[in-house]
Request: fold
Amino acid sequence: MAERKGGSSMKRILALLLALLLLPTLAMAETTFDGAVVAGDAVSVTAPFGGTVSAFSLRAGSKISSGAPVATIGTTKVYAPADGTVAGVFAQEGDAVESVQARWGAVMYIMPTNKFTITADIEKAYNSSETKYVNIGETVYIACSTGSDHTATGIVTGASGNTYTVETTSGTLMMEETVNIYRSADHASTSRIGRGSVGRTQEIAVGGSGSILRLHVKDGDTVERGQLLFETVTGTLDGLFATGNEIRSDVSGVVATVNTSAGATVNKGDTLLTVYTMDTLQIEISVNEYDLSAISEGDTVNITFNYDPDRPTQLTGTVSMISHLSTSQDSEASYLAYVDFTPDDNVRIGMTAVVTTIDEDKESFGE
Reply:
């Protein structure tokens, strides 16, 4: 019995010694690599339409969220050329101006407040050299030639040979009636410069170029000379739609490059900036050829960030790729490897990190 007890004790001692011998080997199975945070391919943020950049303040390295403003594009503003009433608005926001004009002749028309135009000649003018020579731009006074009390004031808008045109600025006339035209307000016969027929003043066609971003008037609106009618940008609008002249990012991440500035001219499709998206961040490590056996694609690894020495940040990641091309220039080959991970808000591109392989055998032994 004593011999059997001694043998059992010896076995326990040998097992303990064997375990102690295995511990250094298991500890050595964990391999660490120094690495840094890198980003994948940058995503381009492009201009949905063209124009002059009126506001832009982003820099490379800025953090940006999806939906955040990137740039403001200045618009081309089209104003009313005369007082009148908006008539025949043939365009909608998003329409290409050239297409509208090709079909309708203009984006919209303005019916002038001065709605009568008189086509006249000097045949019935008082017989003098002064009354038979009509000047463009002179103010004239108009009276019906048939005894009606219709009168008006106008301005000569064109003259050629013996004929000229007058556009009324005030007063009441009737279409197609015959009127005498005078230089004096009292309609003195010696100031008569001719006779003409009343017609309508041609509506003013209002056009432009590019695509309509905003319409500020509608059919039937009364406008004053210089009032804003609509705004355009260059290029065509996708889906014939735009929310405004402020361009917003459609991705979140870190600005990689900036390709424009305030005052620059951009065209539709131009890249305004590029963005590293956070879901493309990886840890890049260099693996010596002697450590290739310690790490494989698909391995789960521990990642340690020491940007706060008092509270290191621990994350896990997965080895996504180990290059088959050496990056080393000396006798010992080394290979770049990349670790996918989910960064927190404190992780920045370029930060250093320590990547440690996880030894599953050690975990099993510990269990």
Remarks:
- Residues 1-6, 22-28, 362-367 have pLDDT under 50 and may be disordered.
- The first helix runs from residue 2 to 28.
- The helical segments are 2-28, 97-104, 360-366.
